[in-house]
UniProtKB/TrEMBL annotation:
Protein name per Swiss-Prot or TrEMBL: GH10 domain-containing protein
Origin organism lineage: Eukaryota, Viridiplantae, Streptophyta, Embryophyta, Tracheophyta
SUPFAM superfamilies: (Trans)glycosidases (SSF51445), Galactose-binding domain-like (SSF49785)
Presence of the UniProt keyword Repeat in the record: yes
Keywords: Carbohydrate metabolism, Hydrolase, Polysaccharide degradation, Repeat, Xylan degradation
C-alpha cells in the first residue's frame, strides 16, 4: 500500500478547459468486492473450503498425498464437525502435510488466530503443528511455528495459535505437519481469521496499562506459565530435544528429592547439549509494555559433581529477522538442594512467537524443575522501591577501596581533600544519601587513557530504568591543562558514555550523565577514564541510581502552572450585564499558542495523513534540509529555492510560523564541495552572496534563523576567515532582515555527555559573539537526546538562562526502541522544557517514521498509526489546555487561571445562549478582559 494514491483526470492540451461530473470508482467485480469486504470485517475465515465440503479444492499436498473422507477406519473415525475431513497420507517426512496458500489475504501488523481440528491415524500419539511458511519481499524465507499439540488417534483435538507478520510477505502458505513418517494427519477444519485483539500494543493484558505499569492491579496475580507445578504432567510443556517425565511424590531414582510445592516436579534427562531443556510457548500471554518477573525452582543430578548453571531464556521469533534469545535469569545449582532461579524480562516489540526455556547445565546432567512462575511485575515488584538507590558499592570510600578495582595496570589509593557534598544535580534527585567522606580515589601509573577505578555492577542494573550518574573528578598536576574525563560503562565489551567533562587540576569538577540498558547484558562495569597516560585521575562520590521520573513530573506540573498559566478576569458588560450574576459560564481553550513545532520535509506536505497530524498538533515548522545552503546551491550559481518556497507557502497558507534552518553550517563535513574548495577571498564573496540571496528573498518571512549551525562542533568558516566571521554573519543577517530573531543552534548541550558543548562553553561563545556586535536573539538547543534525566536538562537550562535570552528546543527527538520507554523520554523532555521559564518554544525533529534522522524516535509509524510516544505527546498537549466552568459572581466577573492561547466562552443567560472567543497573551500580571454580552 503506497503512502498516498491519487486519481487524476487530465489530458486536453493546455488552454482547453476540462469539465468533469459524477466521478465513481467501484470494485470491478462482485467477487473482488466480497474479498475486500471480508478483509474489513476481519471476522471471516480466510481459508477457502475450510471443511472440505468441496473436496480437496483450494488445498494442496506438501510432500505427500491428500484425500477427503466422510469416514475412515471402518467407520470408527467420523468428522467432529460437518460431513468431511481430509487426510494427509503417504508422509515420508515430518514436514509433509496439507497446505493452503493464504498470500494476499494476511495483512502485516495484524494478528491472526488459527484454529484447526486435527487427529492422527496410524500411531497412538504424535505432535501436530500448524506452521506458516513465508517469503518476504527480498526473498528471505521463514517458517513460523503457530501452534503445536499432542494429537492422538482416539479423538479430535483443537490446535490453536496466533501469528503476526511484521513485514510484507510476497508468499505465505499455512500447513499442518509434524508427526513422524507413516503417521497420517487428519484435518476436520482449519480457520484462520483476524484475532479479536491485536497482538500489538493493545493485547488484553496491557489494555489500560499504558504508562501506568506500576499502578495496575490484578494482572500481576496471574501466572503466565500453564501447569506451572506439573500437576497435569507435562501438559503445555515441550521437551527441547531431550527426554523428560514428571515425578509424583518421591522418585525412586532420586531418593529424598521431593517437590517444592504440590506433589510433582519434572525431570529432564538424556540431555546431550547444554541448551536442551524444557520449554513453553507463551506468545499469546505476554505483551509489549510491562516487565515480567520470573522464578523457578531448579536442581541438577548426575554428571560431574561441581555446581552447574541453570538458565532461563526466551526465544523470540520474528518474521523478518533470525530469532533472538533473551537472557532472563541464571542460578548455580548443585544436587544438594533446590535453588530458586530468578530473573526478569521486557519485550521491546511483539515477536511472532515467544518461547520460554529452562536449560543450561552441561550435557549428561539431569535437570529437575518445579514451580515455574512468570508474572507481570506489577505492584509487588514496583521499580519505585529502586528509585534513588545508589548501586555503587562504597561510593563515599568509608571502607577504603572495598568494591573498587583498577581497570588495567594502574594503581589505586585513597586520599583526603575531596568535597563533602554530592554534585547539585544528583542531590536534587537523590533525597536520601550518606554524606561524602571527603576522601577520593587516586589512580596513578596510568599507561592508557582507559585506565582508572572501576566497579562491576552487572546484577544491580534493571532493564529500562534510567540511571543518573554523578561524580566529582579532577586530574593530577602532571596535566598540561583541562583533560577529558569520562564516566564510562563497559556493557558486554561495548563502551557507553555515562557523562563527560573537561576536568582541571585546580578544583573538583562535576560530571553528570545518564545510562540505561535495553537488553540484559551479561556483564557491566562502570569506570572512570580519559586523561592521557601518565596523568593521575581523581574520583570522589561516584553515584549511579535509577531516577523516579514520575515523581519529578509532579514538581514540574507545579512549576508549569506558575510559568505558563495566567490569572484571567472576565468582566461582563452590555445590555444583559445588570442581571448577569449567577449566570453560567463555560470556558474552553481551543488553542495553546505556545510554539510547538516540528521539522517537515518537502515530500511530507504531499502526504495527507502527515499534513493532517501536523496541522492538528503543531503551530511552528522548520524544514529538514530544504533551506540549507547545500540544498539551495548544490553547485555554484545553480539555485534551487523551489522546495523551500513551496514549503513556506504551505506554512503561510495554514498559519504555521517558520524557523529558517540554517544559513550556514560550521561543520566541515556538511559543506558542499565547491564551497570547501574556495580560496579565502572567494569564500568571503560566496558567504555574502548566500546571505544576500537567502535573506532578501525571504525577508520578513522566517521568524528565526539559525545563523551558523553547530559552532561548538565545527570551525570551517572560522578556521579560514578568522574569529570575526561568525559575528559578521550575525551582523549582516540582522542588517538584511531585522525582523528575524537570530539563533545559535547546537547539540549535546543539555545532557552532560559531551565535553565539547557544555552550557558554560555555550554561554562563553554567545558572550564572545555579542562582544563582536552579533545580535544573538535566541539560544537553540537541538535536543537529540538519549535517556534524558530531568534535573540534568534543567541544570543546563538554568546555566544558559543567565544570558536572559529566549531558549528554544529546535530539533528535539528521543530514541528508544521500546515505544513506552520512548514515550517516557519524550515526556521528560517536554515537561522540563515547558516548565522552564526561559524556554519559549519546542520544535520536534520530525514525528513520522521514515522521515526521522534517528531510528527509533518516531511518534507516528509509516502507516499512520500513532504509537505510545505519539499518544504521550497528544496527552501532554491536551493537559496543557485550560477549561473552566462556573457562574458569574456578584461583581459581574468570572475568574480562572489558564494557559496562553485562544478560548471559547459560552454564556447561558435565562434568555439566550451566546458564545464568543478571546485570546490570552503571555504575561505576568492578571489579564482583565471585558466580554460584551
Ligand atoms: C478454489 O477452488 C475452486 C474450485 O476448484 C476454484 O474455482 C477457485 O478458483 C479456487 N480459488 C482459489 C483462490 O484458488
Ligand atoms: C509412532 O511414533 C513414534 C515416535 O513418536 C515411533 O517411534 C513409532 O515407531 C511410531 N509408531 C508407528 C506404528 O509408526
Ligand atoms: C607508580 O608511579 C610512582 C610515581 O608516581 C612510582 O614511584 C612507582 O614506581 C610506580 N609504580 C609502578 C608499579 O610502576
Ligand atoms: C527529512 O527530515 C528529517 C528530519 O525529520 C531529516 O533528518 C531528513 O534528512 C529529511 N529527509 C529528506 C529526504 O529530506
Amino acid at each position: 500500500m503506497p503512502n498516498r494514491v491519487v486519481f487524476y483526470l487530465e489530458g486536453p492540451p493546455s488552454g482547453v478547459d476540462l469539465l468533469i461530473d459524477s466521478v465513481i470508482i467501484s470494485c470491478s467485480s462482485l467477487e473482488q468486492f466480497k474479498e475486500s469486504k471480508r478483509f474489513i470485517d476481519g471476522d471471516v475465515n480466510i481459508i477457502l473450503n475450510p471443511c472440505f465440503e468441496d473436496g480437496v479444492n483450494n488445498w494442496s499436498a506438501r510432500g505427500c498425498k491428500i484425500f477427503v473422507h466422510n469416514s475412515l477406519g471402518d467407520g470408527k473415525i467420523t468428522p467432529l464437525y460437518g460431513r468431511f475431513f481430509a487426510s494427509a497420507t503417504d508422509r515420508k517426512q515430518s514436514w509433509n502435510g496439507i497446505q493452503q496458500d493464504i498470500c494476499g489475504k494476511v495483512k502485516r501488523k495484524l494478528a491472526y488466530e488459527v484454529t484447526a481440528v486435527v487427529r492422527i491415524f496410524g500411531n497412538a500419539s504424535a505432535n501436530v503443528c500448524a506452521t506458516l511458511w513465508v517469503q518476504s519481499q527480498n526473498g528471505r524465507e521463514q517458517y513460523i511455528g503457530i501452534a503445536s499439540l499432542r494429537a492422538s488417534d482416539k479423538e479430535w483435538v483443537t490446535l490453536q495459535g496466533k501469528f503476526l507478520l511484521n513485514g510484507i510477505a510476497s508468499k505465505a502458505v499455512i500447513y499442518l505437519e509434524g508427526p513422524p513418517m507413516g503417521t497420517d494427519i487428519l484435518v476436520n477444519s482449519l480457520v484462520v481469521k483476524r484475532a479479536k485483539k491485536l497482538l500489538r500494543s493493545s493485547s488484553p493484558d496491557i489494555e489500560g496499562l499504558k504508562g501506568e505499569m506500576v499502578h495496575s492491579r490484578g494482572i500481576h496475580d496471574i501466572n503466565i506459565i500453564s501447569n506451572h507445578d506439573f500437576s497435569s504432567g507435562l501438559l503445555s510443556w515441550s521437551l527441547n530435544s531431550c527426554d523428560g517425565y514428571v515425578v509424583s511424590g518421591e522418585s525412586s531414582l532420586y531418593k529424598g528429592v521431593t517437590a517444592v510445592t504440590g506433589m510433582n516436579y519434572a525431570i529432564i534427562t538424556n540431555r546431550t547439549e547444554a541448551w536442551q531443556g524444557l520449554e513453553q510457548d507463551i506468545t499469546s500471554k505476554i505483551s509489549v509494555g510491562p516487565t515480567y518477573s520470573v522464578s523457578a525452582y531448579v536442581r541438577t543430578c548426575g554428571g560431574q559433581n561441581e555446581p552447574a548453571p541453570v538458565i532461563a531464556t526466551l526465544k523470540l521469533e520474528y518474521l523478518d529477522s533470525p530469532p533472538s534469545f533473551v537472557f532472563v535469569g541464571r542460578t548455580l545449582v548443585s544436587k544438594e538442594q533446590w535453588e530458586k532461579l530468578e530473573g526478569s524480562f521486557f519485550l521491546e516489540s511483539m515477536p511472532t512467537r515467544v518461547v520460554f526455556f529452562i536449560e543450561g547445565p552441561p550435557p549428561g546432567k539431569d535437570l529437575l524443575i518445579d514451580s515455574v512462575k512468570v508474572f507481570h511485575s506489577g505492584l509487588r515488584h514496583s521499580p519505585k522501591m529502586l528509585y534513588g538507590v545508589n548501586i555503587i558499592d562504597n561510593s563515599n570510600l568509608n571502607q577504603g577501596l572495598k568494591g573498587w578495582s583498577p581497570l588495567g595496570s594502574c594503581t589505586l589509593s585513597i586520599c583526603d581533600g575531596a568535597p563533602y557534598v554530592l554534585p547539585a544535580v544528583a542531590r536534587d534527585s537523590l533525597s536520601h544519601h550518606e554524606p561524602l567522606s571527603g576522601r577520593h580515589i587516586v589512580a596513578t601509573n596510568r599507561t592508557e587513557i582507559w585506565m582508572g577505578p572501576s566497579q562491576t555492577v552487572t546484577g544491580k542494573l534493571k532493564l529500562h530504568l534510567t540511571y543518573q550518574i554523578a561524580a566529582w573528578v579532577r586530574v593530577g598536576s602532571g596535566a598540561s591543562g583541562p583533560q577529558n574525563v569520562n564516566v564510562a560503562l563497559g556493557v558486554d565489551d561495548q563502551w557507553v558514555n555515562g557523562g563527560q567533562v573537561q576536568a582541571t587540576n585546580d578544583r573538583w569538577n562535576e560530571v553528570s550523565g545518564s545510562f540505561r540498558i535495553e537488553k540484559q547484558p551479561s556483564k557491566v562495569i562502570v569506570y572512570v577514564q580519559g586523561p592521557p597516560p601518565g596523568v593521575d585521575l581523581m574520583v570522589a562520590g561516584l553515584h549511579m541510581f535509577p531516577v523516579d521520573r514520575k515523581a519529578r513530573f509532579e514538581l514540574l506540573k507545579e512549576k508549569t502552572d506558575k510559568v505558563r498559566k495566567r490569572d484571567i478576569v472576565l468582566k461582563f458588560r452590555g445590555k444583559e450585564s445588570s442581571n448577569v450574576p449567577g449566570v453560567s459560564v463555560k470556558v474552553t481553550q481551543v488553542k495553546n499558542s505556545f510554539p510547538f513545532g516540528s521539522c517537515i520535509n518537502r515530500s511530507n506536505i504531499e502526504n495527507e495523513e502527515f499534513v493532517d497530524f501536523f496541522l492538528r498538533n503543531f503551530n511552528w515548522a522548520v524544514f529538514g534540509n530544504e533551506l540549507k545552503w547545500y540544498a539551495i546551491e548544490p553547485e555554484q550559481g545553480k539555485y534551487n529555492y523551489k522546495d523551500a518556497d513551496e514549503m513556506l507557502d504551505f506554512c503561510k497558507r495554514h498559519g504555521i510560523e517558520t524557523r529558517g534552518h540554517c544559513i550556514f553550517w560550521e561543520v566541515e563535513d556538511t559543506i558542499q564541495p565547491w564551497v570547501r574548495s574556495l580560496n579565502q577571498n572567494d569564500l568571503m564573496i560566496a558567504i555574502q552572496n548566500r546571505l544576500r540571496g537567502l535573506l532578501s528573498r525571504y525577508k520578513g518571512k522566517f521568524r528565526h534563523y539559525d545563523v551558523n549551525n553547530e559552532m561548538l562542533h565545527g570551525s570551517f568558516y572560522q578556521d579560514r576567515l578568522g574569529k570575526d566571521i561568525r559575528a559578521y554573519m550575525f551582523r549582516e543577517a540582522h542588517k538584511m532582515d531585522p525582523s528575524a530573531t537570530l539563533f545559535v543552534n547546537d547539540y549535546n548541550v543539555e545532557d552532560g555527555c559531551d565535553s565539547k558543548s557544555t552550557p558554560e562553553m555555550y554561554v562563553q561563545q554567545i558572550l564572545d559573539l555579542q562582544e563582536r556586535g552579533a545580535l544573538v536573539g535566541g539560544i537553540g538547543i537541538q535536543g537529540h537526546v538519549s535517556n534524558p534525566v530531568g534535573p540534568i536538562v534543567c541544570a543546563a537550562l538554568d546555566k544558559l538562562e543567565i544570558l536572559g535570552l529566549p531558549i528554544w528546543f529546535t530539533e528535539l527527538d528521543v530514541v528508544a526502541s521500546n515505544e513506552h520507554v520512548r514515550a517516557d523520554d519524550l515526556e521528560v523532555m517536554l515537561r522540563e522544557a515547558y516548565a522552564h521559564p526561559s524556554v519559549e518554544g519546542i520544535v520536534l525533529w520530525g514525528f513520522w517514521e521514515l522521515f526521522m534522522c534517528r531510528e527509533g524516535s518516531h511518534l507516528v509509524d509509516a502507516e499512520g498509526d500513532i504509537n505510545e510516544a505519539g499518544q504521550r505527546y497528544l496527552a501532554l498537549r491536551k493537559e496543557w489546555m485550560s477549561h473552566a466552568d462556573g457562574h458569574i459572581n456578584t461583581d459581574g466577573e468570572f475568574r480562572f487561571r489558564g494557559y496562553q492561547g485562544t478560548y471559547n466562552i459560552e454564556v447561558t443567560t435565562p434568555r439566550k445562549k451566546s458564545s464568543q472567543s478571546f485570546v490570552v497573551e503571555k504575561g505576568e500580571t492578571p489579564l482583565v478582559l471585558t466580554i460584551n454580552l
